[in-house]
Amino acid sequence: MDDTRSSDVPLGSDNATSQEAGETPPLRVNRTRTGIHAKPAPFPEADLDDPALYFNRELSHLQFNIRVLEQALDPSHPLLNRLMFLLIFSSNLDEFFEIRVAGLKHQVALAREESGADGLPPRQVLAEISRITHEQVERQYHILNETLIPALEEQGLRFRRRTQWTEAQAAWVREYFAEEIMPVISPIGLDPSHPFPRLVNKSLNFIVELEGTDAFGREGGMAILPAPRSLPRLMRLPSELCESGYTEYVFLSSMIHAHAQEVFPGMEVRGCYQFRLTRNADLAVDPEDVSDLASALRGELLARRYGSGVRLEVADNCPDQLSRFLLTQFELEAADLYRVSGPVNLTRLMSVLSDVDRPDLLYRTFTPGLPRQVKSDVSLFTQIAQSDILLHHPFQSFSLIEDWLQEAADDPDVLAIKQTLYRTGADSPIVGALVNAARNGKEVTVVIELRARFDEADNLALASRLQEAGAIVIYGVMAYKTHAKMLHVVRRERGALRYYAHLGTGNYHSKTAKLYTDYSLLTANETLCEDVHMVFQQLSGMGKPRQIDTLLHAPFVLHDRLVAMIDREARHAEKGQKAQLIIKCNSLTEPQLIRALYRASRAGVQCDLIIRGMCCLRPGVEGVSENIRVRSIIGRFLEHTRVFHFHNGGKPETWCSSADFMERNMFRRVETCFPLLDKKLAQRVRKDLATYLVDNCQSWELQTDGRYRLLDAGDAEPISAQETLLYAYAAKP
Q1: Distance from C-alpha of 375 to C-alpha of 352, rounded to nearest angstrom
Q2: Where are the beta strands (DSSP E) in 506-642?
Q3: pTM for the predicted model, two decimal places
Q4: Which has the closest alpha carbon to 440: 465, 474, 406?
Q5: Is 483 part of the annotated catalytic residue set?
Q6: Which residue in the list 483, 488, 509, 553 is annotated as catalytic?
Q7: Tell me: the pLDDT tens digits for 155-172?
Q8: pLDDT tens digits, residue range 600-659?
Q9: For an engineered disulfide with 374, which of 310, 318, 346, 370 has Cβ 3.0 to 4.6 Å away?
Q10: Is 647 annotated as a binding residue?
Q11: In angstroms, rounded to a whole number, what is the distance separating the alpha carbons of residues 666 and 308?
Q12: Contact 16/363 with Cβ under 8 angstroms?
């Protein structure tokens, strides 16, 4: 495989990998360097604390967002999905500024700058973020305006700008503005009695230049015009007003621009320019000062809408003096200003994907499959008792878990159900089953993490719903987010109690289970189920850490055991034995784990890391990390599985986990990491990992200098891991 594409230049790919009907592709074996390694020639002892060995976390996070943006240029994705990737880039960038940039700015403002293992001070990181983001935002709008919009128009989807409206369309807009917009719009003139208003985080607004004298004798100046938040940002024109064969849309911002004069009768509107402010949206709940977490969060959710400003987006034609005026109002600097050549709120265009009926412009649909062992006419309790069931979402159905929980809710032999919920929804089938179970008289205990970022309001709502049904709701441990994905069922069978459990790498969320790759294990293994029971006891009660035999759990033993397993692999390599580890997770930032991987590499261990997002480890450094290869898979599905495989001297161990290799997961969260005790299931997961390691279509390899290069199949057979797994596991038509 040749590395021919870099993440910092416009990319494309014409090596799509759909399988021909009727062909059954084998899951690929690992073609990376493995086997018995000769003991390497000794290198001088390396300083593994050297900042040069670590990439900055925030800059690495930004690089992941850029890899997402690259998908908008990849013709192997359907056209509307390319638009989707461009909009996801916007959404990711919003959160990046709301949380990560806001945190850095807060450190600088308080003069409490802290550097990570990379040694870069926050001021320097902010400067680099600004430089990179300005380049990429400009590029994003160039891709939208010069590539995607023309391509969509060729397919009959058109976005009409003001200058392109026909007379009939302009008349329809005029009527819509009068009937739907004008009654709910609230202009705010700026003068001593009307100070600059507090604007909601990420809301669409306009700054308007006025000339003339109003009804009260006030001289014109400036006004702020907030766009009504109740209205969609994109409106579909009636079909009779569209050119034959076209579906056409107009932007709310264009409508307001076109009729701004009507909002200020008798005044002359000399200019009207859209802008959007991004605010600090991190919630600050101090465990020392909170007696009621739910009440504290409700208060913080209101404050989130009005946090300090971190970024200002303005139309690219906004005059400099108005931009400077806005920067002053929000206490921002010139580096925080982003001029955009299009709508400032691109994420709201996501509605197009569900609005148009164009399956030819979207990924082909599929039906998630089920393992062959699952029988629809047999109780799931009976099937789980016979053998563990492993599901790989979204290729295999998440509904099996929902069905099992509903069966448990209705089963008179089920006595108790305990579950953790991190991200779900108040109207989800999972919550509905728990409500039914509580109403059916079962002991239902739910550990809800209220602080799941941007899902706090939903979690508060579902907590209320469960409490009203009679379930016991616990908010976890104040100083530690409960991020573990666990479900525990107690059932009476033949006069004795038997435990069942579900453990997963992802959330109990039916929608994201169709988009994120995750593993789910349904088991009746006595030791594993007993450990899950103990973790729940630890969460709901008080006392010293309990004896847990099989599970690894954070914040107690997970980190130390992972370091020990990596070091164990290094010892095998030092003895001249075959040594290999494969780590697949979302992020790798924790310095002690990185140092352990460096030690393993120095010993000769082949380290294959599949890290979707942030990676602070620098691969390919002679004498330190030349045996480490890092790749990031970006494709149709969001890679979310956390899998850790160790060769272990011929006695392989494969673990799945809710935790990433990050400080927060290891030390500030409740996490679980569970072994695949069934050898066939463990072998299956290792086969899945091997498939990812030979992907040459959607795999980006991290270079020593921090850039990512897209692996190109060249003359070799193109292999897409996600397509291969989809073909292997989804239901056959």
Answers
A1: 39
A2: 516-523, 552-554, 580-585, 606-611, 628-633, 638-639
A3: 0.90
A4: 406
A5: yes
A6: 483
A7: 999 999 999 999 999 999
A8: 999 999 999 999 999 999 999 999 999 999 999 999 999 999 999 999 999 999 999 999
A9: 370
A10: no
A11: 30
A12: no
